[in-house]
Amino acid sequence: MSNANPHQAARSRRRAIRNLAALVAGSPFMSLVDADGEPVQAQAGGAQQGGRQGGPGGAPRGDRPEVVRPPTYRDEIMKVINLHEFEDAAKKALPIAAYDYVAAGAGDELTLRANREAFSHYWIRRKIMVDVTKVDTSFELFGKTYDTPILLGPGAGKNIVIADGEKLSAQAAFQTKAIMVGGPGPMLLEMGKAGKAPVWWGATLGEGTQAQALEFVKRSEDSGASALCLTVDYPYTSARDRPSRDGWDPEWVRTRVYGTPEFRTGFQAGMIDPYTPNLTWEWMKWVRPATKLPIVMKGILTAEDARLAVENGVSAIVVSNHGARTLDGMGGTLDALPEVVEAVNGRVPVLVDGGIRRGGDVIKALALGARAILIGRPFLWGLAAFGQDGVQRVVELLQGELRIALGLSGAGTLKAVDRSFIRPAWKAYRPGAVSGSASR
Ligand SMILES: Cc1cc2nc3c(=O)[nH]c(=O)nc-3n(C[C@H](O)[C@H](O)[C@H](O)COP(=O)(O)O)c2cc1C
């Protein structure tokens, strides 16, 4: 007697067909399937004719465009249905010290919570009766067009959550066409020679001397970076409670062995651990004339600093509080975004990160003036739980949610999202307060 469950068998068959269809379609990003998950017929008329009623999965589709689904992966990955749940999956896969290192924010984690909470400070203003047949997530940066506004933020820790984490992340970035910020130059150079490197930016937390800064520039240029990202919010490593409690060993990042002979506790309550305390605007004076690459400054939260950054020649700004891992007590990044956008006044693009977990979050960031967004922890969770496929699924899931949010909000395209798509949640409606089409 066979133990096979007929429903499971049918599901596996459908999945196999879907994967084959995705392969045949040749798209790394999207596959065409109908509402039952069956591959779309190539010939005209493949869709059934009929009425327009009915929910997902069953009704005749009339002349509507077909369902577009992201690629599917093995079952255990597909069971994870949103970015929050990737954290749960990673927690199960990781030693507690590694999980805590990635998850932790500084201090009481007020800022960590604020990053998420800021997304409930605004609501999307949906438009109706707009033709959103074509949903377009492409955006332009430094004269180039990219398919997705989701970037993988810079960060240590990829190699502790999984062996070869840097490489797996870079491969996932290549597959999903997400820009990757940071990464080991020699590895990316090799991938570039094979035509398989993602678009990537050299990333640094800053250098204290001109010679070191110029060395960073040369290294990045020689390895094929298409921009430089200077993170300016890390003069000191902040003591974070969770890694302090775990007796965090920083050598782990390099060696993948916990408690090496060089072991020292990386985080100690009350410590002051200098990283680049002497980083000033001098860095821009050293580096700006030395390279043609765009310089992105990450970690700006105020109008004053945004103006100074533009005056000092930056090509883009990332509004960021380092995923709440530095100074606890700062507000959420989405709340800082409008002041930075206003101060910059269109002179350079502004990007944002911190707590972005849903397609609707991306819409809110864009509506407040961001050109694109970065994610940090979510892709590390995907990496920890499922390796390269996990990172891809995280990007594709968020991208999928963004597509549906664009369709449902009436924006359709990233370019169309402006201030008229958002309102502060804390302000009651007053007659005359809403103009027709506020622009960015
Ligand atoms: C484990 C970890 C390490 C990080 N290391 C860096 C870093 O070296 N440089 C940097 O600019 N940002 C670093 N970040 C911050 C991320 O680039 C990004 O700004 C932040 O994670 C975004 O918030 P999110 O995690 O809520 O998406 C790190 C974040 C994490 C979680």
Question: What this model shows, in words?
Answer:
This protein is α/β, with parallel strands linked by helices. It has two domains: 6-72, no CATH class; 77-424, Aldolase class I (TIM Barrel), CATH 3.20.20.70. 39% of the residues lie in helices and 12% in strands. It has helices at residues 6-25, 75-78, 83-93, 96-103, 110-117, 158-161, 165-176, 185-193, 210-223, 241-246, 251-255, 282-287, 303-311, 333-344, 359-367, 377-409; strands at residues 31-32, 68-69, 122-124, 139-141, 144-146, 150-152, 180-181, 200-204, 227-231, 236-237, 273-274, 295-300, 316-319, 350-353, 372-375, 422-424. The strands form five sheets. It has an eight-stranded parallel β-sheet with strand order 6-15-14-13-12-9-8-7. Strand 8, helix 9 and strand 9 form a beta-alpha-beta unit. Helix 7 runs parallel beside helix 16 (377-409) and helix 15 (359-367) packs across helix 16 (377-409). The radius of gyration is 23 Å and the shape is globular. Mean pLDDT is 88; it is low at 20-29, 31-52 and 436-440. The structure holds flavin mononucleotide. Flavin mononucleotide binds at residues 102, 115, 153-157, 205, 231, 298, 320, 322-323, 325, 353-356, 374-377, 380.
